[in-house]
Amino acid sequence: MNIMEVDGYKAKIEYDPELDQFRGEILGINGSADFYGKSPASLRKEFRNSLKVYLEVCKEKDISPTKEYSGKFNLRIPPNLHSEIAALATASGKSINQWVSETLKRSTLD
Question: Can you give the pTM of this predicted structure?
Answer without folding.
Answer: 0.77
